[in-house]
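Subject: design request, 289 residues
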């Protein structure tokens, strides 16, 4: 998907003439610093429960606003972090900030779920569960309100290690979700063996679902399969009202997308959630990147 196509785009250029290569090298050097200097920011995108239309949670999405390059998409720097090992301090930083946000949500009476994206490399870190549990406890965060999102590719990268760490996380009470479902290595028999609670149907199937019958068939089939395996199903990339209500009629559990709200910094998220009224149709875009 997006991350891998970015890499492919890089590889067809000659290294000498590719300006992005210089950028890539400079970003690599700066990432560690950026973590320490708070140049990275977390944005939060709401998810709603389609049955009640209430806000059920938020996904944590990282942003890097670079002094020279401006906005750098996570699809560009997360793969760099993964290749260099910086993903370890980065994911710990993300979890700590996310738990602080969760703590402030709880203290303002919004006891919603928080979904955090996790990389393949985190599933090889033998201290991951212990560190995450420690940081959660420091912020009085209930682990059953935390969902960790993994892609199928991340799980397949090293299935044995992944399964071990996923079992550890699951036993600790953390919920697990398969992100971008349908774009990766969809081995259904393997999925059955994973301690997974949720699947997120990739936005490429959802975005044009209202107009595209094939997409609708894929979404519906995935939904039925997920429910038959007792999984919660999230649709990401809900960009219009027709899609939102179609998903609701199909019995999809949760929805996330620009039509509901864009990812927002924490302050805007609080403004958004305090103004959200479930009996109305969801408000469109407020602000965000
Ligand atoms: P993802 O986890 O699948 O995240 C969903 C992406 O879809 C986000 O892009 C979000 O901004 C975007 N999105 C949400 N609603 C809509 C919509 O209605 N239409 C469209 N077209 N897009 C929508 P973003 O924030 O650029 O993140 C891209 C990817 O980067 C994420 O995909 C995830 O794989 C990775 N990523 C983001 N934050 C983190 C992080 O904190 N840690 C790790 N390891 N990866 C992250
Ligand atoms: Mg995700
Ligand atoms: Mg996704
Ligand atoms: Mg993705």
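Subject: RE: design request

Done. Sequence follows.
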């Amino acid at each position: 998907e997006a991350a891998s196509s970015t890499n492919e785009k890089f590889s067809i250029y000659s290294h000498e003439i590719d300006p992005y290569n210089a950028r890539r090298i400079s970003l690599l050097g700066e990432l560690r610093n950026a973590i320490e200097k708070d140049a990275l920011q977390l944005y939060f995108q709401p998810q709603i429960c389609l049955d009640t239309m209430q806000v059920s949670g938020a996904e944590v999405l990282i942003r890097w606003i670079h002094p020279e390059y401006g906005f750098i998409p996570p699809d560009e720097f997360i793969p760099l972090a993964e290749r260099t090992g910086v993903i370890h301090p980065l994911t710990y930083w993300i979890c700590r900030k996310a738990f602080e946000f969760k703590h402030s949500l709880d203290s303002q009476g919004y006891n919603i779920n928080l979904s955090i994206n996790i990389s393949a490399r985190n599933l090889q870190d033998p201290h991951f569960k212990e560190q995450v549990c420690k940081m959660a406890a420091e912020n009085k965060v209930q682990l059953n309100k935390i969902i960790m999102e993994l892609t199928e590719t991340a799980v397949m990268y090293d299935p044995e290690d992944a399964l071990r760490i996923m079992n550890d996380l699951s036993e600790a009470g953390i919920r697990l979700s398969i992100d971008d479902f349908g774009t990766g290595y969809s081995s259904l028999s393997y999925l059955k063996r994973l301690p997974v609670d949720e699947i997120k149907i990739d936005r490429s199937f959802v975005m044009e679902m209202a107009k595209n019958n094939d997409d609708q068939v894929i979404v519906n089939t995935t939904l039925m399969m997920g429910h038959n395996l007792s999984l919660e199903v999230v649709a990401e990339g809900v960009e219009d009202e027709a899609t939102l209500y179609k998903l609701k009629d199909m019995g999809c559990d949760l929805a996330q997308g620009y039509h509901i709200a864009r990812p927002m910094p924490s302050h805007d998220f609080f403004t958004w959630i305090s103004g959200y009224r479930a009996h109305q149709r969801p408000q469109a875009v407020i602000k965000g990147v």
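DSSP finds twelve helices and ten strands in the chain.
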